[in-house]
Amino acid sequence: MFILTQLQIEKYLRDGVLVVDDIMCAEELKVARDGLHETLLHHGVDTNDLENTAHHLQKLSSTNGSGGVLDLFYPSFKIDIGSNEKLFRATQQLWKASHAHNGESEHELILMGKQERYHPFGKFDADKGYMYIDRLGYRIPTKIAQSVGEKMNPSPEGEQSKTKKSRAAIQRSLTPHLDCCPDTYNSASKKSKWRPIQCFVSLTDNVEPNTGGFEAATGFHREFHQWATNRPPSTITHRDPKSGAKSKIEVTAPCVGEYTHIRPKEDEHVMKSIFHVPVLSGSAVFWDNRIPHANAYRNESVLPRAVVYCSFLPDVDINRIYVEKQLEDYRLHRKPRDTWINIVDHGSEVESSQHQMRETHEFSELGRKLMGMQEW
After folding, report:
1. Given this model, what pLDDT does residue 265 score?
2. Could you list the residue range(s) of the whole structural domain that residue 130 is in?
3. Which backbone phi and psi does 89 adopt, to 5 degrees?
4. Looking at residue 267, which CATH number applies to its domain?
5. How far apart are CA 132 and CA 1, in angstroms?
6. Where are the alpha helices (DSSP H) in the chain?
7. Rounded to two decimals, what is the model's pTM?
8. pLDDT digits (tens, 9 = 90+) for 10-61
């Protein structure tokens, strides 16, 4: 089953970002939207009365409202999207075009003019893969986020400035970042999984900028390795604990797990290359994990932006181990163990802040393979 045209594949290789329309049909979209609204209502959020119920979104976010990203993993509508056959077949095509190689070294691929293809996991079968159970995004309009935040934490009388309201907002933007660490990008031992292509499916139209939508530095994956090698350090102010004297010192640009913040000053040229990517409902957005991305600083729309993050993992050793743990967490209704969640894994002992609501889900044959329940 071929989902993408050669022109689409070439665009992905050039830009590192590809929007594919009509991954979901109208009926599938309705089921997904209904499922999203029912899930949110279960957690106290009435999508028809956000002014009075949106405060419940806070308990669903481990990112302090950043990007409207919610720790909701297992609703049945979401698992359906994550095992969508068209979505997986398109990913397979992109894996084959962008990352599959015959085990050549990085030096050999550089000589072939294909450095972007290099990864330390060797040859893999791009016809096989696994579902990566991720979060969903529900970014409410900024005016509502600020209004609800002000009700919960009212400012002292006379302090109703725009800055105060912005700080009070229950949601904020997801600032430009990478979901990989440049310093360890080509190190297999530093990772819990390998996810070269990221993806989400949009349940709402997001065509205009400044409406909470996806932004990216298209084409950056082609300069990523040179940038990572020459990335300037961060300059911070150091205070001497004895004298109290301040001085400027340089430190290595930080990564937190597989999260890398794009710094406004030191990475200014990267920040300036990040722009809005228009997306229609039912469309999927694929991007290379070396692409800096964000969602908009504000959502000036009167409607929430809703997306389901739903990428796949190639069939390599590190991902087979990851998928076994992911399946265990799914069966036990636990949050998946991943880089953004503070979960301690000591053998069989796993600490998780909450058990996840999980509906009974009937997996297709493809879905069972993607979940690691059945061998390929």
Report:
1. 92
2. 6-223+256-322
3. -65, -40
4. 2.60.120.330
5. 21
6. 6-15, 26-42, 50-53, 76-82, 85-98, 106-111, 142-152, 162-168, 224-230, 268-271, 317-331, 365-370
7. 0.91
8. 999 999 999 999 999 999 999 999 999 999 999 999 999 999 999 999 999 9
